[in-house]
Design a protein that fits this description.
Elements: E1 4-11, E2 24-29, H1 35-43, H2 45-51, E3 60-66, E4 72-78, H3 99-105, E5 109-117, H4 124-135, E6 140-145, H5 152-166, E7 172-173, H6 182-190
Parallel strand pairs: 2-4, 2-5, 5-6, 6-7
Antiparallel strand pairs: 1-3, 3-4
Bound molecules: guanosine-5'-diphosphate.
């Protein structure tokens, strides 16, 4: 199905979150993982452009995906990229304070799309985030970005290393550059159902 993306708002505090409505998909990952590029290919240039506007990089940027009859079907929540900083005790130590409550409490949040770079060994920072998402019972899918940069053998090896290092059964390889894996990711997104 074809959607049009509409920017809703940038939130810096829970009271600014849009009123809960349709299933929401959150996009998370370390800076430079390829989040803007992926959002760009999934939902059109607008999303990535808005999210990289100065002042909005520390916000949660919300986008509505509407169908042909302008009916809102999904909401994408683009979360601030987290840094390369040393492991911190809380996942929120380097994140604005409203991120953790968003992930823990948002009733319409149906899926967290957690991006990791397929060219980079498993990172403790990502493992820590996944452990935390498990602890708050969030559904997530781990997506390995920039898969086009790897040969077949490297791909197999790196994906296995990610599964092991991040303690996950499944990782979805994608490329914003070639479009590889995007159909599978869309299928995961469209299968999201929420119980309100
Ligand atoms: P963000 O900081 O997570 O939003 O990352 P960006 O989307 O800005 O991407 C960071 C860098 O990785 C840029 O130089 C992109 O061109 C590059 N990049 C992102 N996605 C891909 C991809 O699928 N394939 C390749 N080869 N490079 C990518």
């Amino acid at each position: 199905m074809r959607y049009t993306t509409q920017f809703l708002l940038s939130a810096m505090a829970p009271e600014q979150f849009p009123a809960p409505s349709v299933p929401e998909i959150a996009f998370l990952g370390r800076s430079n993982v390829g989040k803007s590029s992926l959002l760009n290919t999934l939902s059109g240039e607008k999303a990535a452009k808005v999210s990289s506007t100065p002042g909005r990089t520390r916000a949660i940027n919300f986008f509505a995906l509407v169908d042909e009859s302008q009916k809102r079907k999904l909401v994408f929540a683009d979360l601030p990229g987290y840094g390369y900083a040393k492991i911190s005790k809380s996942i929120s130590a380097e994140w604005p304070k409203f991120i953790e409550p968003y992930l823990a409490e948002r009733e319409t949040l149906g899926l967290c799309v957690c991006l990791v770079d397929s060219n980079v060994p498993p990172q403790q920072r990502d493992a820590q985030l996944l452990a935390w998402l498990r602890s708050v019972d969030r559904h997530f899918v781990v997506v390995a970005t920039k898969i086009d940069r790897l040969s077949g053998n490297e791909r197999t090896r790196n994906l296995a290393a990610l599964r092991k290092g991040l303690e996950i059964d499944d990782v979805l390889p994608v490329s914003a550059k070639t479009g590889a894996g995007l159909k599978d990711l869309w299928a995961r997104i469209e299968a999201v159902r929420i119980a309100l």
